[in-house]
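Give me the fold.
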Amino acid sequence: LPGASLPPPPAANPPSNVVALTEMLDVEELLDDTEYAEIMEDMKEECGKFGAVVSIVIPRPPAAGVSRDTVPGLGKVFVQYQDVAGATAARTVLHGRKFGGNIVKADYLDEGAFNDRAF
């Protein structure tokens, strides 16, 4: 079928109710409070199409002079759904999609790791 999207590759992690979206954001965009708020709003709106969103975490760069290596998950978006079905639907649709010129990669993240911010 023309225009049909291919299913995402098998998940690297077991299904959970948390989806990690990578290759999605330019870290520089996260420095600006207005841009950050707009990105967060876009994520809530887009991710809400797939199920009930409990939480969205988008780690931000540290203050100038602090190593960015100190921020786990920088440049990624983490979306916690109420159930695995929502996370699965989001992963299926968002993986391979273009966002701001980037091709998004979507995979599951263990809920315990999400809660511990072990990105």
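The beta strands are 18-22, 53-57, 77-81, 98-99, 102-103, 105-108.
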